[in-house]
Design a protein that fits this description.
The complex is a heterodimer. Chain A is globular and about 60 Å long. In chain A, the strands form four sheets. Chain A has a seven-stranded mixed beta sheet with strand order 3-4-2-5-6-7-8, with helices on both faces. Chain A has a two-stranded antiparallel sheet with strand order 1-9. In chain A, helix 1 (34-50) crosses helix 3 (170-180) and helix 1 (34-50) crosses helix 4 (186-195). Helix content of chain A is 27%, strand content 19%. Chain A is of the alpha/beta class. By secondary structure, chain B is of the alpha/beta class. Chain B has two domains: 18-261, Rossmann fold; 269-404, Rossmann fold. Chain B has helices at 22-32, 47-58, 72-84, 95-100, 102-110, 135-138, 153-167, 197-203, 228-231, 233-261, 288-300, 318-324, 348-358, 379-392, and strands at 18-21, 37-40, 65-68, 89-93, 116-120, 146-149, 176-180, 189-192, 220-221, 269-272, 279-283, 305-310, 312-314, 330-335, 365-371, 401-404. Chain B has a seven-stranded mixed beta sheet with strand order 3-2-4-5-7-6-13, sandwiched between helices. Chain B is globular. The chains are: A alpha/beta, B alpha/beta. The A-B interface holds A 62, 64, 88, 90-91, 242-243, 246, 265-266, 269-272, 275-284 and B 84, 110-113, 170, 173, 210-211, 218-224, 226-231, 233-235, 237-238, 241-242.
Chain lengths: 379, 411
């Protein structure tokens, strides 16, 4: 078996037919945010409709957001398309489409959304980034620059700590959106809520409008520190032989992991010829773990209080992903999916599941950055 | 008088024929195939097979894990998983039992597990119709299973061994149904020459899956989550290619089978009198014996009638069928399955034959004869339909499909 590397360059296409449209993409975590993202998109669509704009909204189907915490997205489209639009950024490379990028959980801000598109993939140059977070707009901009989330971005950042206003975070988010974006104003959102029979939520929208902070941003490509490191080329192993072997399989996995940019996963999935009968995937190599493709789903993380830990190793044995090493007990956050099993089985309650957001935002900026560097987000 | 030279002993030790019904013959074939795991759940007419297997195991004739499941669904789940860990398995069912087991049956093919299962074909009830119809087996036409159809008890037993050989071939690795016409094969006892244990062992090497789920072989994942964007079409293509490759493997296997047992079968189509035939009767299964009888009677009257019997539905031998039907003026498809609301109200086998003939240079007039609802046909019916086929060659037929055995007007 020889493994030959083949270069694949993903191309990004533009869609002239879509230029007149305003797309809103809302990112959230499956189940937790499904209802809120739906309300958010529905209300924007209704508000647009009230203003006489043709609108529609739909979910990114491939996410299967019925699974807890899987990153999911909804699209809302405002304007009359020249051709019928149904965008699946998974399948089609996207052009500059998104006017608004709404992020319902700041834990998604730095994570690749579902390890597929980066947050700003498909964004317009003047995109508005709306984040539900307690960190400041300045912090958001700094993270965007630091982790190369956007290049040549001349838009706005709107932040809102929505959960402090309403547990249904969609409504403060809508207020904040109206604050930052003139196409959908506050009045039309409030009217839309009347139409949708959600009059009670008007107050949350107003509060959100007032509490939101807006900052205009200019991010040039050169400013982003890791710009040069971005990989747009993916190296794929070529196969020969009957079926794929662990060797080829691991080469694919490695290529997938190295190809951090969209559409990495698609480009690095194998051709049908190499698939072993019955779609076998091989286990980890001796002494190694499988690549943690689902790690970005984690919304909470186990923190172990070593003063309480009796080193009983129950968490090690119960961890469904084998993400906890022992001697001493230590969580490998590259593989932990945040399921919380370890917390449940710990007899001395030494393990606490800390929400990822809280963990992130409980630290001040230098620590936040250091943490992300450690985890080697970015490239 | 000079001394008569003694006849040398034959090279192949010929086992004595036994008189077995189809169920018993299949069970005996499973026995010599050295099957590890059998899952069973009774439903007529399949039940006889599991009964025979169970009594054989109870009598200590062979060793296998037989698991009587709580339903057909569990039954097919059991064999699916047993196959995944590397066991040679056997299951089977009939009619609505198969319908209930549809989910594991379909994923068995997608997981490329070489499960071999017998179908005693049975009408899909309600209300309790246990007659012979093909709809249950043909229900699984589209999901990657190989499907073969036996004419005689002997062929059914032989097909079982060949099924393992084909299914477990690394070029194929697909599950395999052996369709036995309910009652006509399963419940009818005829002389059968059994395949001996030695012949079976030589013909059928032990099952060695390329990737079995076993700690010894290192960790592998089977049936993992597949998002459509990741491995959707690729999985389907893998199955598709395995089906296409299976044609070569089937031909090889039957050739090899003849070598070990001395019994020769044409791999895909059994044609009788098709060399000069002007009229063809196309069908499958046990009733082909009656149809062949009708054809030979008509031949003695001067009509050039031939018969074409399909031995495999999946993979469908389209090229072979086109070749066999070249030069035929009119042909009739005789079948026991139907698709309600289908084009021209034709049956499932007709669709396959017509689709194949669409690519043929010359197309015969094609009629469809349906025996539905499980009522048993007679030679009289087959004679009627053969006469209709002969008539259609020079006189345009008024209709395409004929429901035989029907009481009331066939509109």
């Amino acid at each position: 078996m020889t493994v030959k590397l083949v270069k694949v360059t993903p191309k990004v296409e533009r869609y002239p037919e879509y230029e007149e449209l305003d797309w809103v993409i809302a990112h959230g975590l499956g189940v937790d945010h499904t209802a809120d993202i739906t309300s958010f998109s529905q209300t924007i669509a209704q508000a647009g409709s009230i203003k006489g704009i043709e609108t529609y909204y739909y979910m990114r189907y491939d996410d299967s957001p019925e699974r807890n915490y899987i990153p999911m997205a909804f699209y809302t489209v405002l304007g009359k398309p020249k051709v019928p639009v149904l965008l699946h950024e998974e399948v089609e490379p996207v052009g500059e489409l998104f006017k608004v990028i709404a992020v319902f959980s700041s834990s998604l801000l730095l994570q690749k959304t579902a390890q597929r598109a980066l947050l700003f993939d498909g964004a317009k140059k003047d995109a508005i980034l709306l984040v539900n977070t307690s960190i400041t707009t300045d912090d958001v901009v700094r993270l965007v620059k630091k982790y190369n989330l956007a290049q040549d971005w001349f838009g706005k950042v709107v932040t809102i700590s929505a959960a402090k206003i309403d547990s249904a975070i969609a409504y403060p988010m809508l207020g904040a959106l109206a604050r930052g974006w003139d196409r959908i104003d506050l009045d039309s959102i409030l009217t839309a809520l009347d139409v949708l029979g959600k009059e009670k939520k008007k107050e949350s929208v107003r509060k959100g409008y007032e509490a939101a902070s807006v900052k205009e941003v200019h991010v040039l490509a050169e400013e982003t520190e890791m710009f040069k490191k971005i990989k747009r080329e993916v190296e794929l192993p070529e196969f020969t032989g009957e079926f794929w072997t662990p060797e080829v399989y691991y080469a694919y996995q490695k290529a997938a992991a190295e190809a951090q940019t969209y559409p990495s996963r698609i480009a690095t999935m194998p051709r049908w010829e190499v698939l072993a009968p019955g779609l076998i995937e091989f286990g980890p190599q001796p002494g190694k773990r499988n690549l943690g493709f689902t790690t970005p789903w984690r919304w909470q993380r186990p923190i172990i209080d070593m003063n309480k830990c009796t080193d009983c190793k129950l968490c090690h044995y119960y961890c469904p992903d084998g993400a906890i090493d022992f001697a001493p007990i230590k969580v490998d956050y590259d593989y932990c999916k945040g399921c919380g099993t370890c917390e449940k089985v710990c007899p001395v309650k030494a393990i606490k599941m800390v929400p990822e957001i809280e963990y992130l935002e409980g630290l001040r900026d230098e620590e936040v950055l250091r943490r992300f560097e450690q985890r080697e987000y970015g490239f | 008088m000079s001394a008569i030279k003694p006849i040398p002993p034959v090279a192949i030790e010929k086992p004595k024929a036994k008189v077995w019904n189809g169920a018993r013959a299949i069970a005996e074939a499973v026995k010599v195939a050295d099957v590890d795991v059998i899952a069973a759940y009774p439903i007529r007419p399949y039940t006889g097979i599991m009964n025979s297997l169970a009594s054989m195991i109870a009598n200590g004739e062979f060793t296998a894990d037989i698991i009587v499941a709580d339903s057909e669904h569990s039954q097919f789940e059991v064999v699916k998983h047993a196959s995944a860990v590397g066991a040679r398995v056997f299951a089977g069912s009939s009619g609505v039992g198969l319908a209930f087991a549809a989910e594991p049956i379909i994923v068995t093919a997608l997981s490329q597990l070489p499960v071999v299962a017998a179908i005693g074909t049975r009408a899909l009830d309600d209300p309790g119709n246990f007659g012979m119809e093909w709809s249950d087996a043909l229900m699984f036409r589209d999901f990657g299973w190989l499907i073969s159809w036996a004419k005689t008890v002997q062929e059914a037993a032989d097909m079982t061994l060949v099924a393992y050989r084909v299914a477990e071939d690394r070029r194929v690795l697909l599950p395999h149904f052996i369709a036995l016409d309910g009652a006509a094969i399963t419940h009818v006892a005829t002389p059968v020459v059994p395949v001996t244990k030695q012949q079976a062992t030589e013909f059928l090497p032990p099952y060695r899956p390329p990737y079995r789920i076993d700690p010894q072989d290192g960790p592998v994942t089977k049936a993992q989550h597949i998002a459509p964007s990741l491995i959707g079409p690729e999985q389907r293509k893998t199955i598709d290619v395995a089906q296409k490759r299976s044609k070569q493997v089937i031909a090889e296997a039957w050739k090899d089978f003849a070598k070990y047992t001395g019994r020769e079968y044409p791999p895909f189509l059994e044609t009788i009198g098709m060399e000069d035939a002007e009229f063809a009767l196309i069908g499958m299964g046990a009733y082909m014996k009656d149809i062949e009888l009708v054809a030979s009677r008509l031949r003695s009257k001067g009509y050039k009638v031939g018969t074409v019997r399909l031995r495999y539905v999946r993979p469908f031998p389209a090229e072979e069928l086109i070749n066999a039907l070249g030069g035929v003026k009119a042909a009739g498809v005789i079948e026991f399955g139907y698709s309600f609301g289908s084009p021209f109200g034709t049956g499932s086998l007709y669709h396959e034959v017509a689709t194949s003939l669409y690519e043929a240079d010359t197309k015969p007039t094609l009629l469809d004869f349906l025996f539905l609802g499980g009522r048993e046909p007679t030679v009289e019916h087959f004679t009627q339909l053969a006469e209709k086929v002969i008539e259609s060659a020079h006189k345009k037929p008024q209709k395409k499909t004929y429901w035989l055995t029907l009481r009331g007007e066939d509109i």
